[in-house]
Amino acid sequence: LLERRVTVAKGELKRSSVHRLLLAHGLSRPSGAASEPEEHRAHLAEYAGDIWYGDVMHGPQVPMDGKLRKAYLVSLMDDASRLIAHSAFCPGETALDIEGVLKQAVLKRGLPKKLVIDNGSAYRAKTLQAACARLGIHLIYCRPYAPEGKGKLERWHRTFRDHFLSELDHSRLSDLSDLNARLWAWLETVYHNTPHSGQGLNGETPLQRYQQDLPRMRTLGPLAEKIDEVFHHRVVRKARKDGTASYQGKRFEVPYELTGKRIVLVVDPHLQKVLSVEDDNGEFLGTATPLDVVANVNRKRRKPRPVEERSLHDVDGENEVELAYRQYHAKGEK
Q1: Is this prediction's pTM over 0.85?
Q2: Secretion signal: which residues (predicted)?
Q3: Of 63, 190, 191, 264, which sits most exposed with the smallest number of CB within 10 A?
Q4: Average pLDDT of span 53-71
């Protein structure tokens, strides 16, 4: 602009120099940006179980299905104690992997009040949101590209790389279960029993700090007996005319009276199997079984009930023919 206005000679000022000067005085910011930098302050949950943080870290390559494939470490950390509620190496970083780790975490450590996780697509999955809602967990998403929102987990990942991955003997790993067996042994015997100097711990171990607040923990209670149901997926479908509904390319038979209606399939995501049928309110409508077209050849069909013939005098309510009949003959009588 200065060159166009002939205020300075062309090439006298560099664009980058002007930009740095304006930026230093808060005069050059993207459209819609805050006029001041966002405030970040150190924080710590008052009690264990108040806040959990979740994240995924890329791990080592491990034999899976006959090939070397990358494993992903999914971890859930308690904010107040730094205890790892559960952590596992998974074949991917999908919503299903994250849900599996959360399921084991709540079985072992109870229910957190809040769960703070990344903003990635896997964490945004409706299935994860639904499971947290059933468990009464407030799900909170970090701002995109803001790692400072989960700094304790970032430090945990550094510790994990320095003290676990650096010592790992890959020659002893035959599959993912071997890697996880060593992870869980190291967590319980080493990490959870190592004194921490971090904020709020003052030399205590994560396990000691966590156990101080055990009386305050939210337990699963009656949900423990039906924890599998909590993590089942719900998929909306429309029952076909032949009394079936599809899921993952397979067809399942549902109660025939649901034909043509909107239904909700309850699915075990690990077995890829439809278990039952519900309505939108979660009410049980019946079971779902894999379609067996061969067995259906000899299956007795349901026949519609015959409609009883009734005289015109038995017909309830008004109809156009009877109304015209009465009006026409009423005129003749007059």
Answers
A1: no
A2: none
A3: 190
A4: 93
